[in-house]
Amino acid sequence: MSIIIRKNGTLEYLVAEGIAVPHAFTTRLGGVSTGAFASLNIGLHLGDTAENVTKNLQILASAIGFEPKKLICTRQTHSDIVRAVTAEDYLGIDHHDYPECDALVTAQPRVALKVFTADCTPILLHDPVTGAVGAAHAGWRGTAADIAGKTVKAMVENFGAEPENIRAAIGPNIGACCFQTDADVPQAMIAALGDVAKKHIRAQNEKYYVNLKEINAEFLRRAGVTHIDISDACTKCESHRFWSHRITGKNRGSQGAIIVCKGGSL
Q1: Which CATH number is 3-174+224-260 given?
Q2: Residue ranges per domain, the chain?
Q3: Residue 141: which residues within 8 A CB-CB, separation 6 or more?
Q4: Which residue of 1, 87, 95, 258 could cross-link 18, Cys pair, CB 3.0 to 4.6 Å?
Q5: What pLDDT digit, counting tens, does each position of 135-183 carry?
């Protein structure tokens, strides 16, 4: 299985062939926002208007298949906090109104989950047996804190999911080609994951290049997940398609990932 691009007019998003419920890794293409937010910005936190973000979410809802008023989002702080949610947890499109967390899980049909990214790693999870779904935002700190594995654990503890049934997809992020760091990042990965992390870290002069996609996949495997689709897209290399914080700082919009719960035994 792989992650592929889908287009609908000017709208462009990515889907994982291994996940059977409606979902998307969004791009910056196909919305109504303008200027630094052009065009499919899905976040309010950097200055776009609520009108534009609402319209962008409506465009996605029509294409993917979800109800905007059942789309729950995160207030991300690079934590390892995972929240189990229902439709009653919907608080609008402004992430500031939500409790702190970097991952969400649900098993309530028609509820959709959303995380934001702009170089960090989006992870989507689906258990076709229980119907449970999860969405996680993994910056390097969240990656080292095993936000991926803790999201799997939340699906197990809250909904009875079996890790071997879960399908995972790791979306576009800043790739190993571009994620240059100091020693603190590889040290955190090795401390959390052990020597297995070393094969995903490349030293060059006094800097390091870290493959966050593969490290998150290692955490998923350690949690018992064996079905993992991984995007090869780099947000920095493909800044015409994705926003990259490394390139523009906060003068940008946000892409992210959305997944919809459809119920069990699909």
Answers
A1: 3.60.140.10
A2: 3-174+224-260
A3: 78, 188
A4: 1
A5: 999 999 999 999 999 999 999 999 999 999 999 999 999 999 999 999 9
